[in-house]
Amino acid sequence: MRPDMPADHTTEAERLLRTAERYPEDQEPLLLQAAAHLELAGERARATRLYDTLLASEPADPHLIRALKAANLWEYGHEAEARAIIEGVRTSAPEEAGPWEIVAATLEAHDELEESEAVFTEAATLLLGSTQDYQDVPHATQSLLKSRHRVRRMLALPHDDWDMLADAVHTADVPLDELHDPKRLWSLGSSDPAELQAEITRLRSELGSYRTALSRPFPVAVLHWPEAELDELLAAYPELEAEYPTYRAHLTDIEASLRELAQAGTPNLGIVPATVPSYEAFAASEASSPANADLLPQYATTLAARGRATSWPPPRAAACWCGSDRTYGECHGGEDA
Q1: pLDDT in tens, 218-255
Q2: Which of 40, 154, 220, 306 lies in disulfide reach of 26, CB 3.0 to 4.6 Å?
Q3: Which of 58, 62, 1, 68 minimizes the C-alpha distance to 38?
Q4: Which CATH architecture has domain 6-215?
Q5: What 3-state class would DSSP assign to 120?
Q6: Could you write out the DSSP letters of every residue in 248-269?
Q7: In the chain, which residues fall in CATH 1.25.40.10?
């Protein structure tokens, strides 16, 4: 259940901190989640200390952590320090969408719309180059494009190529132009029931996206057993052969399951690599047998929470998730997959 009260967020943060002590190799994603809950609980100084702890430990994604720290600092009165960090993130030009979007959203939240739009545009130019095929836009960059579209609508700027690409990757029933229309605020004061109902529909669409993002801080993930690991698993626990009749069927089931989830509207999907020692350790922690098939989805969720998931689908021109020498478009991302 998603926490809704400050005390709930504090409790969840404490749980994540305990988990980080248990799995120090996965400290970074767990402490990031804990810091987010501390911010929601109003414990912003404590969240900053967590960000500092992570930055002192040579993290895998320092740009993201600095961006989050800047957003948090600005919220409790440390604007000058936040601005300095933001400039540092921009100068470093990270090659991931997350830090850029956080920096730009922070500027937007404090009415720095022109500067926010400039940051979004810098990011789109760096990350996408001349890309115009919506199928080649990674999930995180899709979010950045849609956020850029929102800011440009507030600035009354005309659509450009990036805005058109944002429209192409947007799949909700309500178009981006409606969701991001600044005039929508006026309709909230309308006495026309039809206008009010239309606005309620648009707000529900937006709120649904935000709730989904809050409820799923890590991907909905599917297990991928590399062939050697699957052979070892089935040799040790033949009871699981019903789940994995062959390695080829296992790969086909992964792609089919993820496509089915995507068609049902489930966002933030991922794949987590599984190993027999890790699975056995998880089963022991649950006081259960590895032969228990009911543990498999729980194991996948735990790995995803520890930051082990890879986003799905990959770009069609990227290497396929299965580890073959072919691109995703030529392999499991093909029409006949």
Answers
A1: 678 899 999 999 999 999 999 999 999 999 999 999 99
A2: 306
A3: 68
A4: Alpha Horseshoe (1.25)
A5: helix
A6: HHHHHHHHHHHHHHHHTT--SE
A7: 6-215
